[in-house]
Write a structure and sequence with these properties.
This protein is α+β, with helices and mostly antiparallel strands and 206 residues long. The protein is 28% helix and 26% strand. The N and C termini lie far apart (49 Å).
């Protein structure tokens, strides 16, 4: 296909250069008060996992701001809510505990990155702090932090992610059409439109 493939770190560094001192020094092994403030304000994160063979998955997690519970200076916990039960990330964690998390605050172009080792916990006293609309999570991901740092805004600025005037939600067919085409061909479009409407929203916590 005519691709000039990079195969070594030396080749990579020759192309992109070396990070500056601030970028190298910003990794920390424990939460700072500013990190705690970020977690308290964040309603959404992405969790990256990989299985024992290295096959990867990224899963979104979202709840009201502060859904991630800080257990101590190096440990956080993320509740699990009702979903599709595929458990891709959970199965990966059982095989390979290394995880990467990216925390967002809507409207902010910088992010908080966390790398560490995860465990799946069936129950613990802190689950009481994770109750939303009467729903107590059936499990939580507990992450022992190994690296934490704030990430710059350039990707969000380039993408105009938070600028509503650039949003084009109708540039792709609606979710019911995607579901019928790729996942649920036996269901009618009317059924799927009802399912992904008020019925779907009613099941966020059950």
């Amino acid at each position: 296909m005519g691709m000039d493939v990079i195969e070594t770190e030396d080749e990579l560094r020759a192309l992109i250069g070396l990070p500056n001192g601030a970028a190298l020094r910003k990794e920390r092994p424990k939460l700072h008060e500013l990190d705690r403030q970020w977690l308290a304000a964040s309603p959404f994160c992405l969790i990256a996992t990989a299985d024992a063979r290295g096959a990867c998955d990224v899963s979104p997690k979202g709840d009201p701001p502060g859904f991630t519970v800080v257990l101590d200076d190096a440990t956080i916990a993320i509740p699990e809510r009702p979903g599709n039960k595929r458990a891709d990330g959970f199965r990966n964690i059982l095989a390979n505990p290394h995880v990467g998390l990216l925390y967002f605050i809507p409207g902010r172009s910088d992010t908080l990155r966390v790398n560490g080792r995860a465990r799946l916990v069936r129950d613990a006293p802190f689950f009481d702090d994770m109750i939303v609309k009467g729903h107590r999570p059936m499990l939580a991901i507990v992450v022992q932090i190994e690296e934490i740092f704030h990430h710059c805004a350039k990707a969000f600025m380039r993408s105009h992610l938070w600028k509503p005037e650039t949003w084009q939600p109708d540039s792709v067919v609606p979710r019911p059409v995607i579901a019928q085409t790729l996942e649920r061909p036996r269901d009618s479009l009317d059924e799927l439109e009802r399912y992904y409407g008020a019925e779907y929203a009613a099941k966020l916590y059950r």
